[in-house]
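#lab-general

N.A. 3:47 PM
ok so I finally got the sequence cleaned up, no stray characters, all 224 residues accounted for. can someone with queue access submit it? mine expired

B.Y. 3:52 PM
send it over

N.A. 3:53 PM
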Amino acid sequence: MKLLLAEDDAVLADALITQLQSAGFEVEHAPNGAVADFLLARNPPDIAVLDLGLPMLDGLSVLQNVRKSHPTLPVLLLTAKDSLDDRVAGLQAGADDYVTKPFDFPELLARLHALLRRSQPKATHEQWGGLSLDASTRKALLGSTPIDLSGREWDLLDLLVKQRDKVVTKDQIVQAWNGEGAEVGGGNAIEVYIHKLRRKLDGSGLQIRTVRGLGYLMEADASR
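B.Y. 4:20 PM
back already:
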């Protein structure tokens, strides 16, 4: 992960660079706001750490500029100021988090990792065997052929694929369906939908196996 550190305190910057590199980051250092502004515009990193009190161009101005060109870049602010107004101004300008000096490096590292996790795009597409699922459109394809699925069939298939090679219990299926705000129905409703999905997945290279007393398991068809 590439990280930009904008910090004018040379001693603190050197210590942070060493620690961040040991934690696996590729660190680029900007000793003032003008350099940080240039580096962020030229080649944005995966995450940025900005000191609010930078010379030449303050950290708040750097943040406002980067938000215009890179609105989703994770940015953590460092500040020696402990007033509510400073924290609010930074967050309103687009900061994702802040740490007040002095701070412990493990806390800074944990906050950086949390920001990076939140910034990762969530997978919307699943591919398994001949089956493709697109969660953004709730559509499924078998090869290039669309599979006609009801809402409950989609939820059930999505759950089985996400839990691939793991047993999915009836309680988990009920929870997935109740997310629609609908009642599950009679005692054999799940078996009915499992039967429907088995027919629709014919030719996919996948099978839904009943695990007695536990639930259902989607796995690659060993006979293929």
